[in-house]
Structure formats: C-alpha cells, structure tokens
Design a protein that fits this description.
Shape: elongated
Number of helices: 3
Strand order of the largest sheet: 5-6-3-9-10
Distance between the termini: 68 Å
Structural class: alpha+beta
CATH class of the largest domain: Mainly Beta
Radius of gyration: 25 Å
Length: 218
C-alpha cells in the first residue's frame, strides 16, 4: 500500500473575507514508513490561521513533520482577502522516509475552489421602518424583526406574488421557519452583546397581534 493524503474543504466554494477550513487526512503504510511530512501550498495572498498539530506557515505553504508512521488528520484555516475572485488553486505533497528510501506522493484533490456566490434569504427584502430595530437593509444577509414578520404574514395569506418565482410552488413554510431561526439567533447575539438577556416582550406581543390580525386563507 502506498502512502496517501487527501484534501477536503468545509465549503463548496470560497467567500472573500470569510474563513475556509482545509483538512488533510493521511493514510500511511506503516510497514515501510518511518517518518513523513506534508507540504501544502495555498493560494497566494490568503491569510493562514489555526494550524493544528506540529504545523508551521512559511508564508506560501503550510508544512507538518511527523516523527512516526501514524495516520494523521491536520487542519488549517484560510481567509481570502476581500475582493478575491477567480479560481483558487492548491497543491501539496506527502514525503516519507522509510526502509526502502524516500517517496513523494501528491495530495489528492480537490485542488481548486471557485468563489461561492451567496444568495440572500427571500425575506431579506428591506421591509420595515425601524420601529423596533435599525432600518432593515435589503440583501445585507441580516434578517431584522420586521422583515421576518412581513415574510411570515405573506406566507399566511398565500400571497404568491410576494415570493420569488423560484419559491412559488415550493414548501415555503420551511423558508419562513428558517428566516425566523436566522433572525432569532442574530437577535439574541445582538442583545447579548448589549448586555440584555433577550428579546423585549413588547416585540413578541406585537408579532403575535399582527399574526392574529391576518385572516386565514379562505
């Protein structure tokens, strides 16, 4: 059995300015290998952090040296600069010393990633005048209270014209629940950062009253 190393990413693409976790797993032929190392060249200009194990960043590559012949899983985080575009390319190799001399094998792909184009949740439409929060901004990947309420109310009355064409005919309740979850997590974090224990009861009462005021679908 030959030594093997395989690379994987935690995302299907990279997002400029956001971290990407890279994992390398090794399978070592313990019958002939004594020590081995990994050299991983990452896209130029990206920032490296959180290297696991005995890893080191040289500025252009991450490397690990293992003074044994055990299988390992190593990880590191890369952050592409804002404005990064195009295809990102990786290359790497596993080098070993053993009873039969030295050997080098490439790290198995994937070896490239394209930019991941994010699509805002359909509720991220900028509805609201900031009565309870700062004004809502469309497409900012943050769901405010009034955006989620507006989305849920249109779902209740069955207003297909309100939803994007690709959502019509799909189980929109799932998107409503996801919107509520995204908003709730974001909202709790904001209140925790401000030292507040949670969402004001007035907001919850307002949401319930608006929901109750909308008639059911005939």
């Amino acid at each position: 059995m030959a030594n093997q190393a395989t690379r994987s990413f935690d995302l299907a693409g990279y997002v400029p300015g956001s971290p990407l976790v890279v994992t390398i797993e090794t399978v070592i032929d313990q019958g002939i290998t004594i020590v081995y190392g990994i050299l991983e060249t990452y896209p130029a200009g990206w920032t490296v952090s959180d290297i696991t194990g005995p890893g080191d960043d040289t500025g252009t590559m991450v490397n690990w040296t293992f003074l044994d012949n055990q299988n390992e899983t190593v990880m590191y985080t890369l952050t592409p600069p804002p404005g990064t575009s195009g295809q990102a390319v990786w290359s790497g190799e596993l080098g070993a010393m053993g009873q039969q001399g030295s050997s080098v094998v490439p790290i198995d792909c994937p070896c490239t990633l394209d930019e991941l184009v994010l699509v805002p949740h359909p509720a991220d439409n900028g509805f609201g005048d900031g009565i309870f929060e700062a004004p809502c901004l469309p497409g900012d990947f943050v769901l405010c209270f009034e955006e989620v309420m507006d989305y849920a109310l249109h779902f209740r009355i069955g207003d297909d014209e309100y939803f994007p064409p690709w959502l019509v005919g799909m189980p929109r309740l799932m998107y409503v629940l996801v919107a509520a979850m995204i908003w709730r997590v974001t909202d709790l974090k904001r209140y925790e950062d401000a030292g507040d224990p949670g969402l004001p009861q007035d907001d919850l009462d307002y949401a319930f009253q608006r929901w109750q005021s909308v008639p059911d679908i005939p």
